[in-house]
Fold this sequence. Notes:
Number of helices: 3
Distance between the termini: 43 Å
Number of domains: 1
Structural class: mainly alpha
Order of helices and strands: HHH
Number of strands: 0
Amino acid sequence: MDINEIEKNINRIVKEMQEFYWMSGGSEELMTPQMKKRYAFLMLELLENIYYLYDYLESLEYVANYWIEKYLSDESDFYLDLGDEENDTFRSN
């Protein structure tokens, strides 16, 4: 699952959960049994998407670490090769 799909799913789930919250006045006691089951299912679906997001971020971390280790082994080279002379804050002296 790609990051855009994960984001879309999480937004949809949160929107539906907010609707349940609004309809019940923020009270679990005012939810019907069907609303409670649907809310619980939405929580499960949200948790599943959080795990997908975690896996995605873990993969992204692996790729980022590869590139950092390969091309930024000497940090001073990174700062010198930026080519952005206006932003000297990040350059080493």
